[in-house]
Specification:
Oligomer: single chain
CATH class: Alpha Beta
Number of helices: 5
Radius of gyration: 12 Å
Largest sheet: 6 strands, mixed
CATH superfamily: STAS domain
Shape: globular
Strand content: 25-35%
CATH architecture: 2-Layer Sandwich
Helix content: 40-55%
Structural class: alpha/beta
Length: 112
């Protein structure tokens, strides 16, 4: 797994590449929480290059979403491939999280 973080104005994009599974979940969660600790409140989780997400990975996304809700921030998940989207749909996350086709659409949602 590789995480790349970029800033676009007041929007933070975390691009996650590879597998977000039990082996990598803690690293991803710590990376997100460190950014939130800096006061970041608008996030795009870009899954364009993510090959796989496990239940441990879903937990990271849920922790991130709850953290943003607690600080009146926003989080949008973007760029899901079919396999990742299937996991989100089966878990019910697709109905409780904001999603976008790509990071540009997600950024537009956060600016609106």
């Amino acid at each position: 797994m590789n995480i790349t973080t970029t800033e676009h104005g007041d929007i933070t994009v975390m691009a996650i590449e590879g597998r977000l599974d039990g082996q990598h979940a803690q690293t991803a969660e710590q990376a997100f929480l460190a950014l939130a600790q800096e006061g970041k409140t608008r996030f795009v989780l870009d899954f364009t290059q993510m090959a796989y997400i496990s239940s441990a990975g879903l937990r990271v996304v849920l922790v991130a979403a709850k953290k943003m809700k607690a600080v009146q921030g926003r989080l949008v998940c973007a760029g899901m491939n079919d396999q990742v989207r299937d996991v989100f749909e089966m878990s019910g996350f697709i109905s409780i999280l904001e999603t976008a086709a790509d990071r540009e659409e997600a950024a537009a949602m956060l600016q609106g």
